[in-house]
Amino acid sequence: MKFRNLLAATAAVSLAASPAIAQSADADRAAAPVTEESNLGGDSGGAGIILAILAAAAIIAGIIIAGGNEDDEPTSP
To answer: For residue 52, how far is the Cα from the chain centroid?
Structure first.
Protein backbone atom coordinates (compact mmCIF):
# COMPACT_ATOMS: atom_id res chain seq x y z
CA MET A 1 0.00 0.00 0.00
CA LYS A 2 2.78 2.44 0.82
CA PHE A 3 4.62 1.60 -2.39
CA ARG A 4 1.49 2.46 -4.40
CA ASN A 5 1.22 5.80 -2.61
CA LEU A 6 4.89 6.49 -3.28
CA LEU A 7 4.41 5.79 -7.00
CA ALA A 8 1.34 8.04 -7.13
CA ALA A 9 3.20 10.87 -5.41
CA THR A 10 6.18 10.49 -7.75
CA ALA A 11 3.90 10.58 -10.79
CA ALA A 12 2.09 13.67 -9.50
CA VAL A 13 5.34 15.54 -8.88
CA SER A 14 6.76 14.64 -12.28
CA LEU A 15 3.56 15.76 -14.05
CA ALA A 16 3.53 19.02 -12.13
CA ALA A 17 7.21 19.78 -12.81
CA SER A 18 7.34 18.83 -16.51
CA PRO A 19 5.89 22.10 -17.94
CA ALA A 20 8.41 24.18 -16.01
CA ILE A 21 11.29 22.01 -17.19
CA ALA A 22 10.09 22.15 -20.81
CA GLN A 23 9.69 25.92 -20.68
CA SER A 24 13.19 26.49 -19.34
CA ALA A 25 14.70 24.25 -22.01
CA ASP A 26 13.14 26.26 -24.86
CA ALA A 27 14.18 29.65 -23.50
CA ASP A 28 17.71 29.70 -24.90
CA ARG A 29 17.02 28.24 -28.35
CA ALA A 30 17.60 30.31 -31.46
CA ALA A 31 16.53 29.68 -35.03
CA ALA A 32 19.13 28.53 -37.51
CA PRO A 33 19.72 30.74 -40.56
CA VAL A 34 18.04 29.61 -43.77
CA THR A 35 20.43 28.89 -46.61
CA GLU A 36 18.00 27.65 -49.29
CA GLU A 37 14.26 27.73 -49.71
CA SER A 38 12.29 24.52 -49.78
CA ASN A 39 10.28 23.52 -52.84
CA LEU A 40 7.67 21.66 -50.81
CA GLY A 41 4.18 22.98 -51.38
CA GLY A 42 5.25 25.25 -54.17
CA ASP A 43 4.03 24.94 -57.74
CA SER A 44 2.46 21.49 -57.41
CA GLY A 45 0.28 21.73 -60.50
CA GLY A 46 -3.06 21.33 -58.71
CA ALA A 47 -2.14 18.15 -56.85
CA GLY A 48 -3.63 19.56 -53.65
CA ILE A 49 -7.01 20.09 -55.30
CA ILE A 50 -6.99 16.56 -56.69
CA LEU A 51 -6.15 15.11 -53.28
CA ALA A 52 -8.94 17.13 -51.66
CA ILE A 53 -11.45 15.87 -54.23
CA LEU A 54 -10.31 12.27 -53.70
CA ALA A 55 -10.57 12.64 -49.93
CA ALA A 56 -14.08 14.06 -50.21
CA ALA A 57 -15.09 11.21 -52.54
CA ALA A 58 -13.71 8.64 -50.08
CA ILE A 59 -15.65 10.19 -47.19
CA ILE A 60 -18.88 10.26 -49.20
CA ALA A 61 -18.38 6.65 -50.33
CA GLY A 62 -17.80 5.56 -46.73
CA ILE A 63 -21.02 7.24 -45.62
CA ILE A 64 -22.99 5.61 -48.44
CA ILE A 65 -21.53 2.17 -47.71
CA ALA A 66 -22.16 2.48 -43.97
CA GLY A 67 -25.75 3.62 -44.33
CA GLY A 68 -26.81 1.71 -47.42
CA ASN A 69 -27.74 -1.66 -45.91
CA GLU A 70 -31.41 -1.16 -44.92
CA ASP A 71 -32.73 -4.70 -45.49
CA ASP A 72 -31.21 -6.24 -42.37
CA GLU A 73 -33.98 -8.11 -40.59
CA PRO A 74 -33.51 -10.68 -37.85
CA THR A 75 -33.78 -14.28 -39.03
CA SER A 76 -35.04 -15.74 -35.76
CA PRO A 77 -38.80 -15.57 -35.10
So the answer is: 18
pTM of the model: 0.37
Checking if the pLDDT of 24 tops 70, the result is no
Strands (E) across the chain are located at none
> Cα separation of 77 and 73, whole Å?
10
d(CA 12, CA 21): 15
User: 45 vs 1, 50, 52, CA distance in Å?
Assistant: 64, 10, 14
Measured distance CA(63)–CA(60) in Å, rounded: 5
H/E segment holding residue 60: helix 47-67
